[in-house]
Amino acid sequence: MDKYYFITGNKGKFKEAKDKLEYLNIELIQTKMEYPEIQASDLKEIALFGINFCSERLKSPFFLEDSGLFIEELNSFPGPYSRYVQDTIGNDGILKLLSNVKNRSAYFKSVVGLYKDGPHLFEGISRGTIANEMSGQEGFGYDPIFIPEENSRTFGEMTTKEKNAFSHRGKALEIMAKYLENGVE
Fold it and tell me: For the segment 56-109, what is each residue's pLDDT rounded down to a tens digit?
C-alpha cells in the first residue's frame, strides 16, 4: 500500500481528503510541516512554492492544498488572503462587508499540489453565494456562510460527504485521485 502525506495542520481538510480518497488503495497520513506561504495573487504560485519547499525536506509522495474564497462584489477579496481574513475579521466581518449588498456571488477555489516524481497541480472551483447569516455547525472556516450553486444549505449545514460532492477541495482531490489511478493529468 502506497503512503501519501497530506501536509496540513487543519483537521477538517484532512477529514475531507481522507473521505474523498478512501476508495484508493493508499495510506493517507496527516503531517504538519511549516513552510513559508508566499504572498501572491495566484493560488497556483503559492501551492507550487509550497511543494518545492517541502520536497527538499520530505522525499515521500505528499500533497498540500491552498484555497481561497473569492467574492465578486469585493473584487475577488479575500482570495489568496482568505486565511488571514478568517483569522482577523472572520465570518462576521465578511457578513458586515456585504451588509446591504445584493450581489453575493462568490466562489471557492482550491489548488492541490502533489509531489510525486515532480510537482503536479490540480484545481477545483465551487461557485455559489454568500449567505445573509451564518448557518450550520459542520466544517470550518467560511463553511457557515457559503451556499454552493444548486443548493439551499451552507457548507456548514452539510456532512463531509455531502460537502465533498460540491466543494472546491473535493473537486481538486477528485482530479488528483484520477491522476493517481491513471497517471494522466
Answer: 999 889 999 999 999 999 999 999 999 999 999 999 999 999 999 999 999 999
Residues with a known catalytic role: 66
Spatial separation of the C-alpha atoms in residues 125 and 154, rounded to whole Å: 16
26-31/62-71 β-pairing: unpaired
* Residue 7, C-alpha cell as written in the block: 501536509
The x, y and z cell numbers of residue 160, run together, are 463531509
The Cα 101–Cα 98 span in angstroms is: 5
Per-residue model confidence as pLDDT tens digits over 133-143:
999 999 999 99
Say which CATH topology domain 2-182 has: Maf protein (3.90.950)
Place of cell 475577488: 76
Per-residue cell: 81: 488572503
Give the residue from 177, 180, 116, 128 showing the smallest Cα distance to 157: 128
3-state DSSP call for residue 91?
Answer: helix
Rounded Cα distance, 141 and 63, in Å: 21
pLDDT confidence band for 182 (50 / 70 / 90) = confident
pLDDT digits (tens, 9 = 90+) for 11-54: 999 999 999 999 998 999 999 998 988 888 899 999 999 999 99
By the 10 Å C-beta count (0-12 exposed, 13-18 middle, 19+ buried), 40 is classed as: middle
